[in-house]
Every structure is written in C-alpha cells, then in structure tokens.
Amino acid sequence: MTSTHRSQQILDYWTPGRLAAAQPEEHAYGEHIEMREDAAVDDTSGQRVQGAGSLKIVPDSKVKTFPYQSVGKLFYVKVGPSGTRDSFASAWVANVSSQLHVVLTAAHCLEKGNEHAEKILFIPGFIAPNTQPFGSYPQIPGGKGEAWFVDPNWDPNNIQAKYDSGVIKLEKDPNTGKYVDEVVIPIQILANQHYTSTSSWNTIGFPVPSSQNPDGKMAERSGTFYRMSSDGGSFYKYGTLPKATSGGPWILAGSDQSSNGIQAGNVDNCAVSPYFKTSAEELIKFFKIVI
C-alpha cells in the first residue's frame, strides 16, 4: 500500500458526519470538569480559584492568527479489545524539525490502557462545524514507533503526568501538496524553564461541546503557576480544563508565543502538564524518531 493510498483512505474515512460525531478524549487522570465559558469557577462549591481566568471561546477570525492557527483538532480512531471509537482531542504544530513535520499531543490520546490510535487526522485552526482554513493532514503510514511516538517511559497501564507527551508525524495536505509546518507557524518549545507564582500560561484546545459552546469551538484559558511535582517531572497551574483539551499547548505569557506544556489532566483544581526538560532538537533522539 502506497503512502498516497493510505493518506487518502484516512481522508475518506473522516467524513463531515464522522468529524461531527467523534467523541471527546477523556483526561488520563484527575477531575473531568465541565466548565461554563462565562464563569471562573472550578469546583462544585463555586469557589473562585486564584489566578485562573474563565474559559473563553476563540473568535473565528482570531483562530486564523498565530498561535491559534497552529493548534488543531486531532481526530483518530481508538482501537481496543472492545472495538473502535471515533475520538478527538487537541494537538499543536511544534518546531521540532523541518524534516519531521510533526504535532505534539498528550500520550494518553495515542495510547491508554489496551487502546491505541489509528487513522489520525490533524486539522489546524479547525472552525466548527467543518471549516478547515489551513487544510487537513493525515498521519504517515504506520503505528507506534512509525507514525506516532510517546515518551519512552510512558506506561499506558500506569499513567503518570510527567510522561504524558507524544509526537505524530504527518503527511502533506493532498490539496496543497504542503506539510503543515509550511502552512502555519510552528510554536517554539521552551525547555528547562524556572517558574514563580507570577508565571502565567494561556492554554488552547478544543473542549467537549457544552451548552455555552455547543459546537465545541476552540477555547482558551489563562492560569498562573501553582507548583512543581515532587520529582520535577510535571507542573501545575491554577484552573482546570474540560476533556478533549488534552494535548493542547500551554503558551507561556511573555515568551513570544512559546510553549513549555501540554494539557494532560486536572488535579486539585489545577491543570497539569509534563515538564519539558528536553529541547526541540533533542526531542528527535528522545522520542527515537526516525527521519
């Protein structure tokens, strides 16, 4: 089977009906909080969480600007012993290598328990219900270790936030003949950063549809640094996010739109991310990616 045939099969599979009916990816751990976009509260008691802004829908016009254009809706089929499930989460174009053409997401979107992802399709700047302003990009042929990679320490049956990161290699958009990082601006990766209580992030992703956001449009939420994990492998910021935002970037304020985080889950009224100790250049070796 040629690469072209495989790519076209993925594109043919993801009809508008399947895109609309895909189910949101659950967080790998922590609270599955359904948030109102007009409220800055994070638990059932209605307590306002320090340093957390409300979840805001990103206007369609803003979606087409950087860095929002580089964040996309990630569609995939979760395959496991009980069958298959059309699913979606979030991912983002990263400056890993001009030769790789990859997006970053959470590892649990790709592999969790006895399930793994197939037929992966990334649509940057997706505007519901089915506008694809920057094209659509299917995975390259293959599965784990070929088309997608997770942190070498990731255990899908013993999930830990510090290892919850993954990379997907993508084909060209068939209509333009271009790779995604040739069409949208890749988000820079920051590594080995030190944070204080004044450090702030804006997290971007595609949340599960709600009464205030029935189409599940791109949304964003700010929050300030809370703490590092005891082993330094993950970090937390005030303010949780709904399921399906898993895999979205944490854009560090004042960083010229750079990222040092991946939305992975919610713990104790905070969002949690793996901590990048590895630079963009080193990620190639870290994930054992073959060019």
How would you characterize the overall build of this protein?
The protein is mainly beta and 291 residues long. It is built from five helices and 18 strands. It has helices at 3-13, 16-21, 60-63, 107-110, 280-286; strands spanning 23-24, 56-57, 71-80, 83-93, 102-105, 111-112, 115-124, 137-138, 148-150, 166-169, 188-189, 200-205, 219-228, 234-238, 249-252, 258-262, 265-267, 270-274. The strands form two sheets. Strands 1, 3, 4, 5, 6, 7, 8, 9 and 10 form a nine-stranded mixed sheet that branches. Strands 2, 11, 12, 13, 14, 15, 16, 17 and 18 form a nine-stranded mixed sheet that branches. Strand 3 (71-80) and strand 4 form a beta hairpin. The protein is globular and about 50 Å long.
Roughly what percent helix? Answer: 10-25%
The major pleated sheet works out as: 9 strands, mixed
- Say what oligomer this is: single chain
**Strand segment count:** 18
Shape: globular
Number of helices: 5
Separation, N- and C-terminal Cα atoms: 20 Å
Rounded to an integer in angstroms, the radius of gyration calculated over CA atoms is 17 Å
Mean pLDDT: 87
Structural class: mainly beta
